[in-house]
């Protein structure tokens, strides 16, 4: 049924359509005729939702700061989980990871050749030279934010440091590729892939970024490579993660015995950085700074 100007907007703002997303929809219809894959309405957040996601992101970043200031050699990954539970409780928030599809802990801790979804464990002790990704997804008042960082434990090898740095650059190349109403998910992927390949690294394909905000994982998928088929156009109001997993060796991975943790097949180091990003009228806002 056609929406009329005086009807309520579909975005949940309680504003009149003509004062809210009518022009936006017209612009998307035009772009669709030009051949773009345009996002579905459910991928577009309203002001109130964006405000909620921002608050969740502040807590999530505070958690990663807290972990960053305590992490070091001799600590177990279970202690990182303990810090997570404590911090989120103190901030009236909860972990979106805990019990997600049966996931047993509140955060992911992925060391060296673990690509992602490393499970905190009281038997796993961080040692000098390790590189670790800590990936947190927090829920606050029903809104979600998702981010991860790499930490280098003590002195790490030059190869490890390079991988960590270049992977961070890959994330930022992906973010910087975004042009509202102009660029697509493929452009993010191509920017990441190009930079990784320039350094002789490979990009993991089995896991990708995603829409986020009203739940942990929403449409669209955000690929970290160019699939060479048409992908969704990026427009204001979308909130997505970009979270490239970059391997020092080949891109191939397998899931380990716990059914969750992914490892590089060749045993090479893997790194990952993740941000939650809002697409605005003029560019992007990194919510998980
Ligand atoms: N934080 C992850 C992501 O970036 C998802 C966590 S998986 C879970 O999408 F099993 F730990 F919940
Ligand atoms: Co994450
Ligand atoms: Co994510």
TrEMBL record:
Gene3D superfamilies: Creatinase/methionine aminopeptidase superfamily (3.90.230.10). Binds 2 divalent metal cations per subunit. Has a high-affinity and a low affinity metal-binding site. The true nature of the physiological cofactor is under debate. The enzyme is active with cobalt, zinc, manganese or divalent iron ions. Most likely, methionine aminopeptidases function as mononuclear Fe(2+)-metalloproteases under physiological conditions, and the catalytically relevant metal-binding site has been assigned to the histidine-containing high-affinity site. A divalent metal cation 2 binds at residues 146, 210, 243, 274. A divalent metal cation 1 binds at residues 135, 146, 274. One of its GO terms (biological process) is proteolysis. Its cofactor is Co(2+); Zn(2+); Mn(2+); Fe(2+). This is Methionine aminopeptidase. It comes from Massilimicrobiota timonensis.
């Amino acid at each position: 049924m056609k929406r009329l100007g005086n009807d309520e907007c579909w975005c949940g703002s309680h504003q009149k359509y003509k004062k809210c997303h009518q022009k936006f929809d017209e612009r998307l219809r035009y772009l669709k005729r030009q051949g773009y894959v345009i996002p579905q309405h459910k991928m577009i957040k309203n002001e109130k939702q964006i405000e909620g996601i921002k608050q969740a992101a502040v807590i999530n970043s505070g958690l990663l700061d807290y972990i960053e200031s305590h992490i070091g050699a001799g600590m177990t990954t279970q202690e990182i989980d303990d810090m997570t539970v404590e911090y989120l409780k103190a901030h009236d928030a909860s972990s979106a990871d805990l019990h997600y599809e049966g996931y047993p802990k509140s955060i992911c801790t992925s060391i060296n050749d673990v690509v992602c979804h490393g499970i905190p464990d009281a038997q796993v002790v961080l040692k000098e030279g390790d590189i670790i990704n800590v990936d947190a997804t927090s829920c606050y008042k029903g809104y979600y934010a998702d981010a991860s960082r790499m930490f280098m434990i003590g002195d790490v090898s030059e190869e490890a440091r390079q991988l960590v740095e270049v992977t961070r650059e890959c994330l930022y190349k992906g973010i910087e590729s975004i042009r509202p109403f102009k660029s697509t998910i493929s452009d993010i992927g191509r920017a990441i892939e190009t930079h990784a390949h320039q350094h002789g690294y490979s990009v993991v394909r089995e896991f990708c970024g995603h829409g986020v905000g009203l739940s942990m994982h929403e449409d669209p998928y955000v690929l970290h490579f160019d699939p060479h088929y048409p992908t969704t156009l990026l427009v204001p109001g979308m909130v997505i993660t970009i979270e490239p997993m970059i391997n020092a060796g080949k891109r191939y991975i397998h899931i380990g015995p716990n059914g969750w943790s992914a490892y590089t097949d060749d045993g090479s180091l893997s790194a990952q950085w993740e941000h939650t990003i809002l697409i605005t009228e003029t560019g992007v806002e990194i919510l998980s700074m």
